Protein 1
Amino acid sequence: MDYEKYMHRCLHLAKLGVPNAFPNPLVGSVIVHNNKIIGEGYHKTYGKSHAEVNAINAVQNQELLKSSTLFVNLEPCNHYGKTPPCTKLIIEKGIPEVVIGCIDSCEKVCGSGIKTLKEAGVKVKLEVLEKESLEINKRFFTFQKHKRPYIILKWAQTSDGFIDIDRSKEKYDREKHWITGKAAQQLVHQWRAEETAILVGGKTANNDNPQLNTRLIEGKNPLRIILSENEILKEELKIFKDKIPTIIYSRTNYNYVHIENVMLPEQDVLDFVLNDLYKRKTTSLIVEGGRKILDSFIQQKLWDEARIFTGNKEFQTGIKAPNINGETVSSYSIEYDKYQQLINK
């Protein structure tokens, strides 16, 4: 049997769960009988049935399950939560073999699903496309291990290394000073739709008046977060005009229906924010600036991935781009812009 072929299909299905499966992991499952897929499914929505259940229910002739192999990219759950354990259903249906991409590091599972299946006489094959299975759920695993969201730093810089002009000396002109092209902008909006939340600082909110939404593509808006220790946000900001859920971490209250105010402590601000987001089950966070905010995350080593665009414009003076060290895992061109992806090793 071509194990990798069917696991690739699981991974493809799993990605269809973005973003509605969050904070649960992305999981896909297929059931194979005589080298033919007879059922498949994925975890569609948090709190609803898991991938294995959906795949099993998709099999028209349930008797075939007793001579089939179930593939799944993540170890089946073995506990009662919002749904019953998947191991229980697999055993009840008499499925003789289960192929698993990677172990679930969540303390409620962490090998217990595999143990339960084996004790029931189910043949278990592990680590098929393990690297790919770990990668697709890097947000979930980071959330479980570090008790914080998976953090993505994102910025655009000019070819001479600036992320902004000096606005105390020069008036900002969006058309003149926007660094990247339309293709890069659209890609950023796609990224926003794939993550749980997006964060900028209060100064960036006031300077750029961003919407922080997914208006350039069809996709779910992330939770918007403004971190503003001392900056007073202007009343005319676009974030105050719409109804997208927004949290403002500051020392000032803003009286808008869709805005939640969270008062900041005097110290350990980032730890406080990330701990609060963890309690809210925020599994991923894009940080889009500005320089002070980005530097804070970098200096405290609170980042997992950085996505950096370099445009073909030059500012010559202004706000320098952050300094960051990481392993380059991807780089390519988008129209006239260059893109680099780093991971924190």
Note: The longest helix spans residues 3-15.
Protein 2
Amino acid sequence: MSLKNYLFTSESVSEGHPDKVADRISDTIVDAFLAADPVSRVAVETLCTTNLIVLAGEVRGPDTVDHALMEKAARDAVKDIGYEQEGFHWRDAKVQVYVHSQSADIAQGVDASGNKDEGAGDQGIMFGFACTETPELMPAPIQYSHNILSSLAQARHSDPKSLLGPDAKSQVTLEYRDGKPVRATSVVVSHQHAESIGQDEMRELVRPHVLKVLPEGWMCPEEAFYVNPTGRFVIGGPDGDCGLTGRKIIVDTYGGSAPHGGGAFSGKDPTKVDRSAAYAARYLAKNVVAAGLADKCVIQLSYAIGVSRPLSVYVNTYESGKVDEAKLSDVLQQLMDLSPRGIRTHLALNKAIYARTSAYGHFGRTPTADGGFSWEKTDLVDKLKSAF
């Protein structure tokens, strides 16, 4: 019997969190290559610490995206986030680039040749999830955590005299009754700030953003509203803690409400199924829920390096489904080609659309006219309804 009454918590981190700075830089490099050549191959990792940024990885793309351009892209990303601090400044940080050509052995397995279709860039499992808890069809704890930080970031970027720094974390705990969220029992926001502002002032600065995001009447008790619980958060970002690409994979996905395959997204071009197949799984799960075929749906895909077709397609609607899951799996595979090439073609992923995904979640976002967040579209709803 599934648990019906419980508390569940998810966290988010801002674009200025050290790991998210690293994700942003890596995805900016991906965009630089895809803008120059849509079939570029990119796998770039970033490390950032006190006034130091290190890029490493493997690429296959035009020579115009050289080390100098990568350094500029890294500095531009840090500047856009808003780091102009003594310990981490877009202009003053040292940037080291150790990026080289992609392994010929990997390229051989991935490339299409003769009668062989393009294969997956690696083995692995990927999950997609959707549920009816929010309009975005995302789990409520992670969606509200993202939205709080996104609102604070908009306020910071719009005010040149803002007392907010780029680094921040949020955490929302919701009470579930009969399997549905009904209120927040605690909210935690830790936000970097100027030396001149104290904890009480920060609390009141943060409060309206939380109230704006949570449904009316959901605010937690005052004693469970924690803002900068240590009392001070002036030193932050990579100067306060080392950042690495791919360390916030639960923040990037569903906040722990659904399984995770383990592979990070940022820094990878869409031939890497860690990224593209996770997007495809979310796309299919969201369309299932949007079509009213289930209140909750998880989809798992699995791949082998060099093999084009998924090894398995698993669908689970957690007893909320209104159709047979085996038939649903078959129908989904008829509606979408789940080979790496098929996914990229269906979702138009070979574009410079990835830097924007690096903070505030890869899912639960709004599709854009230039192809960004195409995996959030619900354009399969009519076909799914017709199939059943």
Note: The CA atoms of residues 302 and 311 lie 5 Å apart.
Protein 3
Amino acid sequence: MSFEHIAVVGAGAWGTALANVIARAGRNVLLAARDRAGAEALTARRESPRLPGAHLDERVGVAPLAPEVGRYDAILLAVPSQQLRDAARAIAPELRKGTPVIACAKGIERRTRKFMTEVIAESARAALPAILSGPSFAEDVARGLPAAVTLATHDATIAAELARALGSSAFRPYHSTDVRGVEIGGAAKNVLAIGAGIVAGRGLGASAAAALVTRGFAELFRFGKAFGARPETLVGLSGLGDLILTCSSTQSRNYSFGIALGKGQPPSATHALAEGVFTAPVLLEMAEAEGIEMPIASAVVAILEGRASVDEATETLLTRPFRSES
């Protein structure tokens, strides 16, 4: 099984970082920008405007997204979750049966309530859907700083081979077959990171921040179990690990967005590129349909939808009845 020729779709910060990582692993890499103008600009500058200062490795080729990208041995879709369906459709005509197509977005499609691998399966039927997720910032990865992630697909052998093909001493993918668990960790933590940012922006203190992350993880865990995730995945890199990172650094767009909300900025002015904004309402809808209690996620949604102020949502959480922790 050979994954020597790998394509990355999406020339933003994460796509650029992944292309560099794969090139350093010794693979032939194509970075596919979503339009011709973007490809031409990236070819000229060798630097993504989303990741200033991180130059594209000379071994990375650049081209506009086209069906021919589907001919590569494996394709990583490094586009926002709500745009992943279009990216999968673009490569579908030339995709060979069983080609791994790896979602690198952390979210749930809002219109359909579909997880990312489900979107791939619907949009590119020849694909072997996979997911890459974990505690990793694009800037760190692009600079070659150490990071570990989880790569999951239902075929254990291919998951292991892909991990070896993408991995290096600085970028370590651990492989798994718990696709749903990896997807849930990545999607839910973005919503909780908004809540953690609100706590920071409102100046509620380190104790409140620790409580929110801990109780937020309990919500993530309940949601994951209800949707078939394995407990060991939820406490691993793509679950607890990613939650800790995203809830503690302004490099996280979701955390930074939450800080802005906590400081009184309206949601409409601050939500650019924060995946949790789109995931939060659908995550809550899915939880309520299964009878899963997620009060922190509910508070975040109430703030995003303008049904509660930050102070009102906080008071709602603080006045909940006392109960057992278990």
Note: The longest strand covers residues 127-133.
